[in-house]
């Protein structure tokens, strides 16, 4: 009996010990659960706060998207429209969410400046600038900006600039015409004298004709400059050697008259795509300028040298004085001249001719030589 009591006592003690451990473990677990609940509540509060912030941000972005003057078209990964803003709806009224986006269905590329255009219901034309913003794995945005008004402003500005240029040109032309016209009128008035000797009459008539020819030359230069594109006719592939020889033939009388030392060289100049008569005229113009600014016995040179397979350099050089730095930026401007009887159109016409042939021209000074250098693209054989 005593042994049984002892066993029962041990069992109860063990049971009490296990119970105490379970109670302690439960309290620990209860504390951990409370801590986890606190953290969960904190995380939940943060999520609610972030959700509210995101909702406010989304509302702001939605309002901003709706108010933007730039049209925005949202596309999914398959290129289908998921959302458009008000500006995009105004530009493309027929565009609706769910449609597949094909640029050619809505806008046509404008070859003039790379923008896009579309015809409106009233047959007017709208011009649109388009940019795509790609999102990694999330589709893309198409940004559409109506630049019709901006284009109209540019056209108006260009028109105003053209009118201002025409006004300035007309004023310069009037100034250029006034002197030879006044001289011609003076000599013509002298021809009306009844007692004018025959020799003087012939001399005055010659002066009138000379001044009228100067006026005709000025008008011809003016027409050459102002017509739409100086280059007239069909461009052809020509051999530069034959062009240089023609220039030499035309310029030879003036070279002989001023007793100038002439030199012409060409090193594998090759072929160029030009209008032969215009290129010859431009080179003759430069050679005549070189002769007029050379002292008797000076050098005048015409050279052509290929620069690889890309271009050829044509140089007209003389031993005349250097052009002052103060006017070097103006020498290609219409009606700018340093000669008393010059029209100021020669170099302007040369520049237009060369640029229409996809080339360029510049002035430079090399030692004692004044040089005008033309750069023209070579035609591949």
UniProtKB/TrEMBL annotation:
PROSITE patterns: HIS_KIN (PS50109). Residues 172-380 form the Histidine kinase domain. One of its GO terms (molecular function) is kinase activity. It is an enzyme of class 2 (transferase). This is histidine kinase. Its EC number is 2.7.13.3. Keywords: Kinase, Phosphoprotein, Transferase. Pfam families: HATPase_c, HisKA. The keyword Glycoprotein does not apply. Gene3D superfamilies: 1.10.287.130, Histidine kinase-like ATPase, C-terminal domain, PAS domain. The keyword Amino-acid biosynthesis does not apply.
């Amino acid at each position: 009996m005593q042994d049984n009591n002892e066993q029962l006592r041990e069992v109860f003690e063990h049971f009490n010990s296990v119970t105490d451990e379970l109670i302690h473990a439960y309290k620990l677990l209860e504390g951990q659960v409370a801590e986890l609940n606190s953290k969960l509540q904190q995380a939940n509060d943060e999520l609610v706060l972030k959700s509210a912030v995101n909702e406010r941000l989304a509302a702001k972005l939605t309002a901003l998207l709706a108010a933007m003057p730039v049209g925005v078209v949202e596309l999914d990964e398959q290129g289908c429209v998921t959302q458009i803003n008000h500006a995009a709806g105004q530009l493309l009224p027929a565009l609706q969410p769910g449609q597949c986006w094909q640029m050619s269905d809505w806008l046509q590329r404008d070859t003039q400046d790379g923008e896009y255009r579309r015809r409106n219901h009233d047959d007017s034309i709208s011009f649109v600038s388009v940019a795509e913003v790609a999102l990694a794995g999330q589709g893309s945005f198409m940004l559409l900006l109506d630049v019709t008004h901006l284009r109209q402003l540019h056209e108006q500005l260009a028109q105003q600039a053209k009118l201002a240029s025409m006004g300035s040109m007309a004023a310069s032309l009037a100034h250029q015409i006034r002197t030879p016209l006044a001289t011609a009128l003076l000599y013509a008035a002298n021809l009306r004298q009844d007692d004018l000797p025959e020799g003087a009459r012939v001399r005055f008539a010659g002066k009138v004709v000379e001044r009228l020819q100067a006026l005709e030359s000025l008008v011809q230069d003016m027409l050459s400059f102002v017509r739409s594109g100086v280059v007239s006719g069909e461009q052809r592939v020509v051999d530069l050697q034959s062009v240089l020889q023609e220039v030499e033939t035309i310029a030879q009388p003036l070279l002989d008259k001023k007793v100038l030392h002439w030199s012409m060289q060409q090193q594998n100049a090759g072929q160029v795509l030009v209008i032969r008569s215009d290129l010859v005229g431009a080179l003759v113009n430069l050679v005549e300028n070189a002769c007029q600014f050379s002292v008797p016995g000076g050098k005048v040179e015409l050279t052509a040298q290929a620069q690889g397979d890309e271009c050829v350099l044509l140089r007209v050089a003389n031993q005349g004085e250097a052009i002052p730095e103060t006017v070097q930026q103006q020498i290609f401007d219409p009606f700018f001249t340093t000669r008393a009887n010059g029209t100021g159109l020669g170099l302007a016409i040369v520049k237009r001719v060369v640029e229409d042939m996809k080339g360029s021209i510049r002035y430079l000074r090399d030692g004692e030589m004044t040089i005008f250098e033309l750069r023209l693209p070579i035609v591949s054989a």
